Amino acid sequence: MSEPIISVRNLVVEFPLRRGLFTAVDDVSFDIMPGEILGVVGESGAGKSMTGAAIIGLIEPPGHIASGEIYLKGKRIDNLPPEEMSRLRGKWIGMVFQDPLTSLNPLYTVGQQLIETIRRHLPMNEAQARQRAIDLLDEAGIPTPESRIDSYPHQFSGGMRQRVVIALALAAEPELIIADEPTSALDVSVQAQIIKVLKKLCESRGAAVMLVTHDMGVIAETATRMIVMNKGKIVETGSVGDIIKRPKEDYTIKLIEAIPSIKDETRRHEAPPTSTLLVEVKNLTRDFDLSPGFFDRLLKGAKRNVVKAVQNVSFDIRKGSTFGLVGESGSGKSTCARMLVGLIKPTSGQVLLEGQDIAAGLTQERRQKVQMIFQDPYASLNPRWRVADIIAEPMHALKLVSNRREAEDRVADLLRRVRLDPVSMRKYPHEFSGGQRQRIAIARALSSQPEFIVCDEPTSALDVSVQAQVLDLMRDLQDEFGLTYLLISHNLAVVRQMADDVGVMHSGVLVERGPVDAIFDDPQAEYTRMLLNAVPDISKVE
Amino acid sequence: MLAFILRRLAQSIIVMAVVALIAFMLFRYVGDPVASLLGQDSRLEDFEELRERLGLNDPFYVQFGRFIGNALQGEFGISYRLQQPVSELIISRLPATIELAFASATIALVFGLTLGVFTALKPRSFASGVIMTLSLVGVSLPTFLIGIGLIYVFAVELQWLPSFGRGEVVDIGGWRTGLLTETGLRSLILPAITLSLFQLTLIMRLVRAEMLEVLRQDYIRFARARGLSKRAINFGHALKNTMVPVITITGLQLGSVIAFSIVTETVFQWPGVGSLFINSVQVVDVPVMAAYLMFIAFVFVVINLIVDILYFAVDPRLRVGAGRR
Amino acid sequence: MRKLLITASVLALGLAIMPASAETIRWARNSDALTLDPHSQNQGTTHTFSHHIYETLVDRDVEGNLIPRLATEWSVKEDDPTVWVFKVREGVKFHDGAELTAEDVVFSLDRARSDKSNLKQLHSAVASVTAVDDFTVEVKMTGPSPLYPNNLTNTFIMDKGWTETNNAVEVQQAGSTDDNYAVRNTNGTGPYILVSRDPDVRSVLKINENHWAESKPAITEIIYLPIADNATRIAALLSGEVDLVQDVPVQDVERLAGTAGIRVETGPENRIIYFGYRLGEEPLKSSNVTDKNPLADSKVREAMHLAIDRNAIKQVVMRGQAVPTGVATPPFVNGWTPELDAYPEKADAAKAKELLAEAGYPDGFTITLDTPNNRYVNDEAISQAIVGMLGQIGIKVTLASRPVAQHSPLIQNAETDFYLLGWGVPTFDSAYIFNDLVHTKEGQYGAYNPSGYSNPELDKKIQSLATEIDVEKRNATIAEIWKTVQEDRVLLPIHNQVLAYAMKDKFTLAVHPENQPRIYEVTIND
Amino acid sequence: MSSTNNPAVTEQPRSRFQRIWDSDIFFSFRRSPITIVAALVTLVLILSALFAPWIAPYDPFNPASLNLMDGFTPPNSESMMGNYFLLGSDHQGRDVLSTILYGSRISLFVGISATLFAMAMGISLGLLAGYRGGTIDAVIMRVADIQLSFPAILIALLIFGIARGIIPPSQQENMAVWVLIIAIGLSNWAQFARTVRGATMVERQKDYVSAAKLIGVHPLRILIRHVLPNVLAPVLVIGTIGLALAIIEEATLSFLGVGVPPTQPSLGTLIRIGQQFLFSGEWWILFFPAMTLILLALAVNLLGDWLRDALNPRLR
C-alpha cells in the first residue's frame, strides 16, 4: 500500500469562547489514501467541517489547532507559515464549499477566476490557462464552455455553479479535495449529478476526496470508507457498507436507525380507514406577475412575464390522514401550502374544508381549524417573545381563552404534550435547540385546537436524530388529537414514512398522486421515477 | 440600461419639481425681503410699492408658476441683494466651490479608502484601534470648531497658511481657478481639510464595515482555499466587492460635500456658492436661496445618475442579463 | 533687506516722476457694498464704497461740518428762501475723460429723486432742479428748507452722457428683472477708479491720476475685502493678510492695540443705541399683565431708566468702547446738550423698585425684548445685560435675538413690545430723530416709532422744524421737544457707539463719525 | 455554517442581574475600557445636567442674580465683586461652570428630544414602508432620499425659517426650543426610516409573521408587537449616533445664531459667544464649553460605536 496523502494525528481544535474553551475537534486521527473517497459524517456541531478546515488551514480565528499534527504526503503542514500554506492550497489540497451561490465572486467571470487560480499554481501563460479552464469546464459538464467561460456566476444555475466550483477546486490538480457538504444546498436531481461529476473528476485524476456531509445517503452512494463523528470525536471508522449495515457503537446504531429510507415500508402511522374528506383542493391556480417595469417594456419590448406558480392542482385529504406533497424547490408546493392556510389568495380554484369553500378569505373558523408549522424554527418564533406568549398568541387572537391564568394553564399543558418542561414557558426561543424550537412551534399550532395542520418542511432544518424525534411527536399528536396533516417535503424518505397519500409536484403541476406505496413502488410519471432514482439513500449502499 | 436611466431621469424630474416647490415655498417664509432691502430711511409706501413690484402680493401659485417657468430657462431672477442675475452669480461662484469640494473629496476618498482598507485588514491591530478612535473624534468635532481651530493654529499662531479667501485666481475661459497660483493652493489647504474631515471619517468607517463584511463571505474563503495570494484576495477580490456598496454612499456623500461646504465656506470666507447662500439667507435674498436649493438638488440628481452608471460598470449582475429564471 | 532696498529705490524714483509712490492697502470689513449704482441703495456700506469712486456736492469733515466737494459754494437764493444755489467745481473730469458740468449735476439730482431711487426721501422737498449756466445749479424747494444741503452728503454725481449711452438712466431697483449697467460699472469723478469687482469677495480700485484735488492720496491701490466672520477678519489682520480692518469687535481692541505692528484708532460714531417700548394703553403682547400696559405708566419707564447701569455696560460689555448717555442723540447732532446727556452714575435698584410698587407692580411683570444680533456693536450682549438689570427690579425679560433682516420688520410693522435699535443721524440734526422715532406713526413720519406714542402738540412742533428758517427759534423748538421726550421717557438711551479701526502701524486713518472712512485720507508713516 | 456557539449552556436559574451581567452585550462592554470611560463620561454629563440646579454654584438662567461687574473673571479666581469662579465667568458675569451645566441640560434635552422625535417618525414611516411596500414605500423612500441628499443643517435651517414665518414673533422665544427639536428631528428621520424599512422587509418575510397573520392578528398589532421589537437593535445604534449628531447639529444651529435665546444658552450658543473672545485673551469662555461639547459628542459616539459592534452578531 502506498503512503497516505493526508495523515491526521491526534488533532485538537479549540475555540476560546467567553464561557470557556470549546473543543471543536477532539483528538482526531485518520488517514486518507490516494484515490480514496473518505466520507465524514455527523450531525451539526460534530466537528466534521472543522476537521476539513484544519487540514486546509482555514480555521476562522479565534479557533486554532491546539495540538496534534497533520501530514501531507509525510510532510508536516499544520505549522507552516501562512504564505507557504497558501501556496499549498489549491495546488495540493482543493476545497468545495456547501453553497455554490456564494462561493464565487460575483464581480468576476468564471473564466477570470479559473485563470487566476491556474496561473497562481501552474506555469502557464494566459492563453494556455484559458484553454485549460475551458477543458476543465467541459469536464465538469458545463455545455459550450467556450462561450460560457466569459459568463458571470449569476448567469449560471445553482447546479452549474457547483460544477464551476468543482472545476475551480481541481484547477491545479490537487491530490486531495475536501468537499464540505457539496450538495446540501441543491435539489435532489441536481445533487445526484454533482456527486457524479465530483466522483468522475476525482477518479480520472486519482485525487482523493474527503467528503464531509450530514447526509448518510450521499456517503452511502459515494464513499468507500467513512468516519462517524460526534461532539468533536471520532465514534466509528470503517467501510461504508460495514457501518451502515452493521454499526457497532451505540451512537452509530441510533443514528442509522433514525435515518428514513425510501425503501422502508414500515410507516409511523396508518390513517384510520374512514372515507370522510376533510380537505378538498379543486383546480387551485396561482399566478405571479413578474413583469418588468413600464420603461423596460416600452424600450426593450420586454414582454409581460406571468409565472404560473401553481396550475390546476387538485387533491383530497381524508380526515385523520397525512397527505405528503413532494417536489423540488420552485415546484410550487410551498405556494400551495400557503394558499391552503390563507396566507396567499389563489388566482382561481377552491379549497373546501368539510365541504365549505374557505379560499375566499380568513374566517374565524378557518383560522382556528387550520394551522401551520414552518420550516425554519429559528425564523418562525419571534425571538423577542417569551415562549408562553408565543404559544398563547393564537388563543388570545382567536379569543379562545378568557384570562391570562387560563391561557397559562393551557400553555403548560401544551408544553407537556410536546414533551417540554412547562417551566420553559418563561424562557426566550434562543435558549432552546432547533428541535425544541420546532416543538414550541408545534405547540403554538396546537393551541387553537386545529383539525388540519399544514407542515411546510417541518424537519428539513434539523439533524436526523432530532428529525426522528419530531416526526415521532407529530405521529403521537396525530393519534392523540385525530389531526389531519398536509406534509410538504423535499425529503422523499420522510414522506414515505409519514404519509398515507402522496402528491408529486413539478413546475407548478401535480404530476402524480395516489397512495404512498403505489407511488414509491410503482411510479407512473417520468418525473417521479427520475426523482426516486436520484435520491441518495442509505438503502443504496452496496 | 437605457430604460434604467430613463426611469431614473423620470424620478429625477419629480425630485426636482418637489425641491422646487419646497425651495420656493420655504423661502417665501424665511423673512421679509422687503424690510432688509430698504434702508433705514424707507417709508411705508416704499414697502408696499416694493412688495407689489416683487410680486409678493400675488397669490402663492402665481408666484410659484412664475418661478418654475423662469427656472426652466435657467432664469432665477435678479438677486435682491447684489442686483445681478442669480444664474450669473452662481456660475461665477461655482468654480470656487467645485474646486474646494473636489479637493476635499479627493482627500476624503484617498485617506478614507486607505484607512478603511487598512483598519479592515488589520482589525485587531493597535493602529486600527487608534485610527478608529480618532475617526470618532473627527465625527464628534463640529465643523465650525475645526475651522476655527485650524485658523487659530496655522494662520494666527504659526502664520503658515492664509486664514481666508482663495488667494490669487487665474481666469481660464471664464473659469477662475485658484489651483494654478501658489497663494491659491495655500489658501485651499485649510478649508479643504476642514471640509473633508467629516466625509473622510464616514467613508473610512463605511469602507471598513463593508470590507469586513465582504471578508466574511464564502467566496473569500473559497479564494483562500484556491490558494490565491493574500494580495490578490484582499485587493483583487475583497476590495472590488467592497466598492459596490461604497460607491453609492460615497457618491452621495461627495455630492453633499458641495452643500455641506456652507459652514466651511463661512468660516474661511471662501467665495463659493455656500457663502453666497449664507449671505443671502441673512438678508432673505429669495432668488439666490431658491436657486441654490435647486442647484443642490440638481447636483444630487446628477451624482445619483453617475452613481447608477458606475454601479452598472462595476456590478455585472446589473449589466449582464441573468441566465437563471 | 533686499525688499527694503527695492522699496526705497522705487520710492526715490517715485518721488522724482510720480506724485506718490505705489502703495496698496488691503481693506477688510464685514460686508460688501450692495451695488455700484450710487442712487440705488441708501445704505452706509454702499455709500462708503461709492465715496471713493463718485463724489457728492458737499461732504462732511470729521467734526461733522459741511465742507465743499463738487460744489465750491452754496447758499439760499437772496430773494427766494425756497431756492438753493450751488456753484459746481470747474475743471473736474469723469474717469472717462468727460468734463463735469451743471448738466450732470441736474441729471444726477433728478435721478436721485426719481421714483425708483432709494434716496428720494432725502430730496422729497425738491420741486425742480435747473442749470443756470455751465457751473451753477438752482434747486427749487416746495417750501423753505434750511437744512437741505445736509441731505446731500450721500448723493453722488454721475455723468449724464455715460449714463444715457449705457441705458442706465433708470435706477436699478431691488427685485428688478433687468440687468443695469450702472450696477457693475462706474464712471465717477472720485479719487479712485474701479479696476475689478467680484461681489462679496474682492474689489480693486486704483488711483485716479487726473483727480481735481491738489493733494494726491498716499494710497494708490485699494483692495477691498469683505470678511463677514469677526474671528476670520481679525485673524487675517493678525496673520498679515489684510492691512486695515474697519469693523473691529470691541473685545479685540485691547489685544490688537497691544500687538506689535498694529495700530488701533478709536472714535465715537454718530449713532445712538437705545431701547424702545410700546407705551400706548393697549396691553402688551408678550406680558403676563394682560389687562393693561404696565409701560403706559411713566413711573415704570422711569424705574427702567434707573435700573440700568450704563457704566457697567460700557466697562464690561463694551470694554470701554462706548459713550454712555441719557439722551437719544449723539453729541454730533444739533440739539444735543450736556444737560440732556446726563445719566445716573449707578443703577438705583431700590428706587426703581419703589417706583414699580407705586405703579402697582411690586412683583414686576414679564415682557419680551427683541434684539438684533448682527447689526450693532455687541447688540445682543447689551440686550442680555439689560435683561439682567431689569431682572433685578423684578421685570422678567425674555430675550428674542434675531438677525437684523428679521428684526427690522418687527419694528416697522409695530410687532414688538420692547426692542433695541441703533439710530444714525446723517443730517446731524435732531429733526431727523424726531421725524422717525418720536412723531406719531402716520404718513412719512414715525416709520420707526412702533411705540404707540402720540403727542399731537409735539407732532406739530416736529413738523414745523422742516420749514423754520430762523435758526434761533428752530433750536428753541428742538430744545422744547427734547424736554418733553425726556420727561415722558419716550426712548431709553444707552450709549453712543465707539468705533475702532485696526491697521498695520504703517498706516494712519482716523475714525469717521458716520463710519464712512475715506481711504484717500490715509496717511503713511515712514 | 449553522450556529453552533451554544456549547453546554448551564441550566441553573440565574438572577436577573446575573443574566444581564453575563449577557453578550454586557460582556463586550466589560471588555472595552474605552467604552466604560465613555459610558461614565456620558453618565456624569447627563447626571450633572439633570441635577444642574442643585450642583451648579450659580443660577445663570436667572438674570436677576447676575452682576455685570463679575464679567470676564479668569478661571479659578475671584471677581472684583468677590465671587469665586472655578472656570471663570463670561461677558455677562455668568459662571462658566454653571452655564455649561445648564447649557448641557438644554443641549441634551434638545438632542434627546429631537432624536426621539426623529426616531418615532422614522420608525413609523419605515415600518409602514417596509410592511406595505408598493407605492407608499416608493413615496416614503423617495422623500427620504431627497431628504438625505441635503445636509441636515440646511434642512434644519429651512424648517427654522418656516417656523419663524408661522409663529407670531411674541411667541417665538418660548417656542424656540421646540422649533429646534422639530427642525433637528425632521432633518434626521430619514436614516431611521431607511434602516427600519430594510429590517422590516427582512422581518416581514419571516415565518413568525406568517404565523401571526395566519391566526388573524391585526396588521398594526403585527407591526408593533412582532416586527418592531426585532428591528430595534439597528435603531438603537443609529439612535445613539444620531444623538451625537443632533447635539452637534444643535450646536451648529446655535452657532449660526438660529438656536435658543442667549439668556438660556445651550453649549452651541456658549461656543458662539465664546468664539468672540478667541483673540482677546478670554479663552475660557470658548474653551470649556467647546471641550464639554466635544467630550459629550465623543462619548456618545463611542457608545454608539460599541453598541453597533455589540449588537451586530456578525462582527462578534
UniProtKB/TrEMBL annotation, chain A:
Gene3D superfamilies: P-loop containing nucleotide triphosphate hydrolases (3.40.50.300). CDD domains: ABC_NikE_OppD_transporters. Keywords: ATP-binding, Nucleotide-binding, Transport. The keyword ATP-binding applies. It holds the Pfam family oligo_HPY. It is a peripheral membrane protein. Residues 6-256, 279-532 form the ABC transporter domain. It is found in: Cell inner membrane. PROSITE patterns: ABC_TRANSPORTER_1, ABC_TRANSPORTER_2. One of its GO terms (molecular function) is ATP binding. The keyword ATP-binding applies. Belongs to the ABC transporter superfamily. This is ABC transporter ATP-binding protein. It comes from Aquamicrobium zhengzhouense. The lineage of its organism: Bacteria, Pseudomonadati, Pseudomonadota, Alphaproteobacteria, Hyphomicrobiales.
TrEMBL record, chain B:
CDD domains: TM_PBP2. Keywords: Cell membrane, Membrane, Transmembrane, Transmembrane helix, Transport. It is found in: Cell membrane. InterPro entries: BPD_transp_1_N (IPR045621), MetI-like (IPR000515), MetI-like_sf (IPR035906). Residues 94-311 form the ABC transmembrane type-1 domain. SUPFAM superfamilies: MetI-like. The chain crosses the membrane at residues 12-30, 100-121, 133-155, 188-207, 246-270, 290-314. Gene3D superfamilies: MetI-like. Pfam families: BPD_transp_1 (PF00528), BPD_transp_1_N (PF19300). It is a multi-pass membrane protein. Belongs to the binding-protein-dependent transport system permease family. This is ABC transporter permease. It comes from Aquamicrobium zhengzhouense.
UniProtKB/TrEMBL annotation, chain C:
Keywords: Signal, Transport. Its main location: periplasm. Gene3D superfamilies: Dipeptide-binding Protein, Domain 1 (3.90.76.10), Dipeptide-binding Protein, Domain 3 (3.10.105.10), Periplasmic binding protein-like II (3.40.190.10). InterPro entries: Peptide/Ni-bd (IPR030678), SBP_5 (IPR039424), SBP_5_dom (IPR000914). The keyword Signal applies. Pfam families: SBP_bac_5. Transmembrane segments: none annotated. Coiled coil: none annotated. Belongs to the bacterial solute-binding protein 5 family. This is ABC transporter substrate-binding protein. It comes from Aquamicrobium zhengzhouense.
TrEMBL record, chain D:
Pfam families: BPD_transp_1, OppC_N. The chain crosses the membrane at residues 34-56, 106-131, 143-163, 175-196, 227-248, 283-307. Keywords: Cell membrane, Membrane, Transmembrane, Transmembrane helix, Transport. It is a multi-pass membrane protein. This is ABC transporter permease. The lineage of its organism: Bacteria, Pseudomonadati, Pseudomonadota, Alphaproteobacteria, Hyphomicrobiales. Residues 104-304 form the ABC transmembrane type-1 domain. InterPro entries: BP-dependent_transpt_permease, MetI-like, MetI-like_sf, OppC_N.
